[in-house]
């Protein structure tokens, strides 16, 4: 009789299924906050439109304009914004208002919460990328590649870069003492890295060497370089730090940050705020 009862008992949902359900909740919550939606999508788009209009000229030896050179780097900045900043601030807010503490006590595996957050960030990141590509194509005549190999490169750079930034953002969320301070804590390193990674400066090869060295330690520089290799011709390579797209090194650095970000999440993540809420 007991065996019959056990066979008839409903199975508990898997962590993946709960994570998908959690992602739906996260997306609904995100799109209900209209000011957050507008700021998230508008900031990289406005920066691209403004800087693309300010920068002028064509690089010697190629037909690439300054605005076209800027566009792939801004796509990388958009990916970092919607993953690193958004995840860091939203998790800090969940910790501050007690949401994390309540979820920790619920009959739900902790991995489901993170799956939901990361899936939400990936959906928003895809939307941000589409918006930036649309601006670059319509306003600055950026040509979309026709070679499938280039789109394959875009795919693995996007996935590795978004994963690395998302995991780093989850880990960095523990640095914020409260939801109010989370925005400043997450935006400051993002803006600094955007400048030293050459996102707001063209061409990258003209950055001071110390900044290039520091920027090369972080994923944003390599993600931007990977996207430039997709959308720009090889004739622009003399404007890079080295005359090569370095796809192998890009993959190695981004994969290392994915592993490092996971380690940081496992060792530094806190379910409760510092005030013990």
Automatic annotation (TrEMBL):
GO CC, any one term: ATP-binding cassette (ABC) transporter complex
Domain of life: Bacteria
Chain ranges of the ABC transmembrane type-2 domain: 35-272
Annotated keywords: Antibiotic resistance, Cell membrane, Membrane, Transmembrane, Transmembrane helix, Transport
Keyword hit for Ribosomal protein: no
PANTHER family cross-referenced by the UniProt entry: ABC-TYPE MULTIDRUG TRANSPORT SYSTEM, PERMEASE COMPONENT, NODULATION PROTEIN J
Name of the protein: Transport permease protein
Annotated source species: Micromonospora phaseoli
Source lineage: Bacteria, Bacillati, Actinomycetota, Actinomycetes, Micromonosporales
